[in-house]
Amino acid sequence: MALLEVDLEGLWLSAQQILGAIRFSQRRGETIALLGPSGIGKSTLLRCIAGLERRYEGHITAPDRLSTAFQEPTLLPWRSAIQNLTVTTGIGEAEAAIWLDRVGLGGRHSYFPGQLSLGQQRRLSLARAIAARPELLLMDEPFVSLDPGLVDEMMTVFEGLRAAEGTTTLLVTHAEAEAERLADRVLRLGGPPARLQAEGA
Amino acid sequence: MERVAAGRHGGARSLLSGQGPATLPLSLCALVVIWMLAAWINADAELLPGPVEVLGIVREELASGELLHHVAWTLWRVVAGFSLAMLGGLAIGFALGRSDTVDAWFGPWVIVALNVPALVVIVLCYLWIGLNEVAAIAAAAFNKTAMVAVNIREGVRALDPRLSDMARVFRMSALARLRHVILPQLWPFLAASTRNGLAIIWKIVLVVEFLGRSNGVGFQIHLYFQLFEVGHVLAYSLTFVAVMLAIDVALLQTWERRTTRWRRLSESH
């Protein structure tokens, strides 16, 4: 039984077609990468799956417990690093402290997001997404505009967490290498409007 | 984050923000000296008593208990009217900011309310509700509600949709959203409303008391106006000015320092 079932006919916003026909399903424990050029509507597709965009034609069956790690870390700037974990995911302080350790933010519990570098904010955002123990993790270009060394470091962090938690992940990216390295299956999107192309291994 | 920072203009300005630590006392001393000079030139203690005489009256009234009694009444009306105005304004501002339809229909009402003179509201409240405490506080609150609503509407419109999406995806409870996502973004607008609100509402309360109450600073001013006692009028009004300034410094500025700590730290980074 698939965890995620996407059967889209299309999405039109103010008379413009953003998404075309997209059909795929995802099994529990699987990591799928949606690969395609920037600006093609990948993020919109994720918003549909997350339930933030409902004006599409078709059906999406997604689990209720979702979490997101987006390009923008979207942290709460007025809450400390550790509160950003506890307040959004509902976990306790002790557990949150462990999560901070796991993403290399061990000494930074009381730092506000504005005091962290972009790479650190992204790691905090990733920790938050996985700490929420989602059935499905949606990631939107989580490694874009970081130094190559940092990208590798973050992917390693992610792989470690995913292995430990068995998180089912749907990753949106424009980088071929990222998709190949992290995903069990790569779905290519062409367009616009975004359409599914031939499936890779 | 830019959106949040854009709300700042509403926050920081303080009644007592000077340049250096010495500027404020010097400036106030200069004011007192000018007053003393004017009283000395005028040489008519009935028309313009000097600061020393007024201070003497304050001391007398304080000793008799009169001053505290009336200041307490006025302060209660300020607090009650202010709280009602903030709650009402918050609710109305939220509704207006959230929905364009609501704003299109009821936004103009707020503009009308904003432009009704305080005096008219006070008189109407006394006529319709009666010469009682409910009317007094309703009048004070009504005069301020529209202003708070307009302010909060701007704040609600400026809420970051990305953070709202995040809160929805993570299934944050309504209470957690309000506390951790929405209110911190509204804080600069709330701070501006609080500041302007306190400054305006106590002046309205004085008029309310002047016209239809038998206690409070406004009532005393009415009384001594009829007795042509300028010294007492000054003593009561200046005491209340001092009380309001003390509230500004002691409560508002401390509160503001606490709630904007994250911003200062983030900026200095």
Would you mind describing this structure in some detail?
The complex is a heterodimer of chains A (201) and B (269). In chain A, 33% of the residues lie in helices and 25% in strands. The longest helix of chain A is centred in the last third of the chain and has 18 residues, at 148-165. Chain A is α/β, with parallel strands linked by helices and 201 residues long. Chain A has six helices and ten strands. The model of chain A has no long low-confidence stretch (mean pLDDT 85). With 269 residues, chain B is mostly helical. Chain B has two domains: 18-48; 50-268, Orthogonal Bundle (MetI-like fold). Chain B contains twelve helices and no strands. In chain B, helix 5 packs across helix 7, helix 7 packs antiparallel against helix 9 (174-212) and helix 9 runs antiparallel to helix 11. The A-B interface holds A 47, 50-52, 65-68, 70, 72, 74, 76-79, 83, 87-89, 112-115, 128, 132 and B 1, 4, 162-163, 165-172, 176, 180-181, 184, 259, 262-263, 265-267, 269. Chain A: GO terms for molecular function: ATP binding; ATP hydrolysis activity. Chain A: This is ABC transporter ATP-binding protein.
Largest interface: A-B, 25 and 23 residues
Mean pLDDT of chain A: 85
Order of helices and strands of chain B: HHHHHHHHHHHH
Classified in CATH, the superfamily of the largest domain in chain B is MetI-like
What string, H for helix and E for strand, traces the elements of chain A in order? EEEEHEEHHHEHEHEE
Helical residue percent of chain A?
25-40%
**CATH class descriptor of the largest domain in chain B:** Mainly Alpha
Note the total helix count of chain A.
6
Tag the structure with descriptive keywords.
heterodimer; A: 201 residues; alpha/beta; Rossmann fold; six-stranded mixed β-sheet; four-stranded antiparallel β-sheet; 6 helices; globular; B: 269 residues; mainly alpha; MetI-like fold; 12 helices; 0% strand; disordered N terminus
